[in-house]
Amino acid sequence: GEPAEVRLALIELMRLGLNPEDAPFLKSLSADRSGKVRELAGRLLARLGEHGRSNDGGPDDPAGELAAFISEGKSGFIRRRSIYTPAKLKSPAQEKRRAELFETCNLVDLAARFGATEPEFIGAWQFGADNNADILIARMVAASGSDAAVTHMADALVTDGGKPALFVLHLTPRLDSRRKRTLVRLILKQANYLNAISLAEGIDAGWLEWDDLSNGSALAALRSAVARNDDAMRRGADDILETIGFLATATTAAKLIDEVVAAGMPPAAPSLGVLRLNAALAEHQSRTDT
């Protein structure tokens, strides 16, 4: 047969266009010789809503062990609903073990430990209580969550805004173009988190309009970073400008160059390279049209 690395690469391709018809084949991999192949097959099955190991609370029930790191409570006076909060950790060893369990468990199995569906569990998770746990749950959703869980988390956090919305960055490889663009626009409105735009993955090129930049605080923050005599802030601005250069329309690119040069950036700055290439396409198109 094929080496484990080849089998693993072939199964990785199944992430694209994964559908319920793939389940029988993925289940057949539970006896594969490679632990990595078995783990990936389990992740993909989890995305299809298939449970992994038994949820009996026994020693071979990692989801049960992980559930012990999560506190279940109630919220609301009239309509009581469950909420899930990371339990307080007592030692670095517990933190290490919790991280390992989040990495190896699947969302569908963890949610089942609380008698909840994936969207119900994500909707009741108390983001903001423990930053490390929030990162871990976001990664878990990205790795093993169903499409419904991914979109539920993205839509809920982006709607609420603020810092928790940045956890959606972990989900970008699985989001559609509309949701990715909505996230980028949200980041551009919040100057405090502007550097996070460079972390977004798989975003379409050439769609960001001038209003997307000028309606929020991004433009003012970029001008300020360029104008200040602060190397760290300027390096951050360089990264942001390179990312925006990829996302922007040609017209937006040309306007942004004018703005940051007026704020004090050298016209030949390397960080303007992508923006200039983008703007040049507009000039070329204009000459072609005439």
Summarize this structure as a short list of keywords or feature phrases.
two-stranded antiparallel ribbon, 2 strands, 4% strand, mainly alpha, 57% helix, 290 residues, globular, 3 domains
Topology, please?
Blueprint lengths: L3 H9 L10 H6 L6 H13 L14 H6 L2 E6 L5 E6 L5 H13 L2 H7 L4 H7 L6 H14 L2 H14 L16 H13 L20 H5 L3 H10 L3 H17 L2 H13 L10 H17 L1
Antiparallel strand pairs: 1-2
Helix pairs in contact: 1-3, 7-9, 9-10, 13-15, 14-15
Strand-and-helix sequence, N→C?
HHHHEEHHHHHHHHHHH
- Principal-axes geometry comes out as globular
Alpha-beta classification: mainly alpha
The profile of the biggest β sheet is:
2 strands, antiparallel
- Average predicted local confidence, pLDDT: 90
Estimated helix fraction: 55-70%
Assembly state (oligomeric): single chain
> Major sheet: order of its strands?
1-2
- What is the C-alpha radius of gyration, as a whole number of Å? 23 Å
Structure explained in plain terms:
- There is one protein chain.
- The chain is mainly alpha-helical.
- It has 3 domains: 1-50; 53-175, no CATH class; 191-290, no CATH class.
- Helices cover 57% and strands 4% of the residues.
- It is built from 15 helices and 2 strands.
- The protein has helices at 4-12, 23-28, 35-47, 62-67, 92-104, 107-113, 118-124, 131-144, 147-160, 177-189, 210-214, 218-227, 231-247, 250-262, 273-289; strands spanning 70-75, 81-86.
- Strands 1-2 form a two-stranded antiparallel sheet.
- A hairpin with a 5-residue loop joins strand 1 and strand 2 (81-86).
- Helix 9 (147-160) packs parallel to helix 10 (177-189).
- The longest helix is centred in the C-terminal third of the chain and has 17 residues, at 231-247.
- The N and C termini lie far apart (61 Å).
- 32% of the residues are buried.
- The model has no long low-confidence stretch (mean pLDDT 90).
